[in-house]
Amino acid sequence: MKTNSIREYRNLLPYFKPYGARYAWGFFFLLLVDAAQILVPQCIKRAVDMIAQASRPGAAAFSARPVYGLALQALALGVVISGGRFLWRYFIHGSSRRIEAEMRERMFSHLTSLSYDYYQRSKVGDLMARTTNDLGAVRNAIGMGLVALIDGTMMAAAILAVMFVENPGTAFRAVLPLPVITVTLVFFGRTLGKLFGRVQEIYSNMSDTVQETFAGIRVVKSFVKEWWFAKKFADTNEDYRKANMELIKVFGAFFPFVLLLSGITTLIVLWVGGGKVISGEMTPGDLAAFFSYLNMLVWPVLGAGFAVNALQRGAASLARITQVLTCQPSIQNPADPESPDPTHDPAIEVRHLSFRYPADDPPGTPVLHDVTMSIPRGAVFGIFGKTGSGKTTLLKTFMRMIDPPDGTVLVGSVDVRRADLAKLRGQFGVVPQDSYLFSDSIRNNIAYAAPNASDKESPETLLRQAVETASLDTDIAQMGAQWDTVVGERGLTLSGGQKQRVSIARALLGGPEILVLDDSLSAVDMETERRILTRLLELRRGRTTIIVSHRVETMRRADLVAVLEAGRLAEYGPPEELLAQEGFLAAAAKLQDGTPSRASGEQE
């Protein structure tokens, strides 16, 4: 990936526009500081000449008053320099921080808008690195990097102009090493761009290793593989160190080289200028001013190196950020979206649906093949099948988490490809098999579906009703902080069954028109499942409920059952009729008879 092109900064122009005035004021005060700094050596020059003149034989008595006046002028210039520095930092650095914040917000918002398949291709650690480390590099580039570039350019031009005006011959000899520095900067910038890109990529890999290790800490510890992940991190960390050392070697060689050339210019001025002072062609004040300007000229040269450093790093990071921001969701709202009718019967229709993941499966092996079914409004609909039979894929087409072919899936009489995404998904409440909880209290994890719900309003609130329906009330009462118990990241402190029941309560609180339980009772015992389903189906009478399960006993509660085998609809109808036949559901019932937990441990 090419990440060293300064042209990447064109992507920042929309962000700069609102802050154009602030940057303009910042550069005004920056140039004011430069002008004040240029005048300081002139005060030194005049003071030295006054002292030198007074020290000559036969000179008039020395009066310190003019020197005091020059000192006051220098002091006033110092006040201007201090105030100007504060103001340019306030305007420029303040603007760069605001742009960074806006970019971070935009990037986060954009990432949440991307489709499900994007996160199957991308690593979380890499995305975290782009939203933190890379954005910091961009902010540094459009802050201090830009300052170093403009300040260095203007200061160098002004200093050289003054030196050539005052003594062209000495100035010409003093700047002879500058072309060498310019050539070095060009080579330096190209090399840095490549090295910065590599450093950022390795940092992303290291961040991803950390994220994966901590997210899967239970698995790591259960297999006693701490040593393996420690070694993996150590290897990545070593790669990061080596990449940074390569960068430091190149970058570190530049500054000593610049200081060497600066020392050479000082020797040139001392040799040429000293001779001219002796011959009377220059005054001691002129030589003192020349030395001051040479010392000031070191910053523009070093600043050029800093600017190249910051701008190349920023360009490398900006390319990685732009790569994310230019990625479009694979599933987008249609140009003229339609609103599904929540009162339409049937609630969901599937018409000759065939589906194959474009990248994951070889051609000719569809996950779903010619599936046709109808889910009546208000019905309890069961989906049964072996692991890998296509149950979860079928559910994803209902909410358009993946795109089915046109006209194959209709929700509320509207083709999901033409439905308004927010309204379509707003009709569903999904309880996935792998329950995800936030690092927050149980109250907030449940109330996430309906933030305005509160258990303090009355004993019969929706929140308490959802918790009781999910058979979670007893568990909460036994916890130390009860409703305010913090569950830890991903619900780390809860059992699998408790996490599933928190997810069920959360989905119920939202009051969805269509509730989907995707094998979400697999971690609870049969008695708890019976109690939950009895309460849940009673509460949701008149609204559609879809239950995916490996338990035949659960399927008995459904009005209709669809049995999937290898992506095909093998059986479809009331559970009583299917159990009376010699099909897959009946065979599974015989296997589970007397040993209800045998199939329940499977997960899709």
Give structural notes.
The chain has 604 residues and is α/β, with parallel strands linked by helices. The protein folds into two domains: 6-56 and 63-325, ABC transporter type 1, transmembrane domain (ABC transporter transmembrane region fold), CATH 1.20.1560; 348-592, P-loop containing nucleotide triphosphate hydrolases (Rossmann fold, 3-Layer(aba) Sandwich), CATH 3.40.50.300. β9 (560-565) and β10 form a beta hairpin. Helices cover 61% and strands 9% of the residues. The chain has 20 helices and ten strands. The longest helix is centred in the middle third of the chain and has 54 residues, at 226-279. It has a six-stranded mixed sheet with strand order 6-7-8-3-9-10, with helices on both faces. It has a four-stranded antiparallel sheet with strand order 2-1-4-5, covered by helices on one side.
Describe the structure concisely:
The protein is 61% helix and 9% strand.
For the structure shown, list the relevant keywords.
604 residues, alpha/beta, ABC transporter transmembrane region fold, Rossmann fold, six-stranded mixed sheet, 10 strands, disordered C terminus
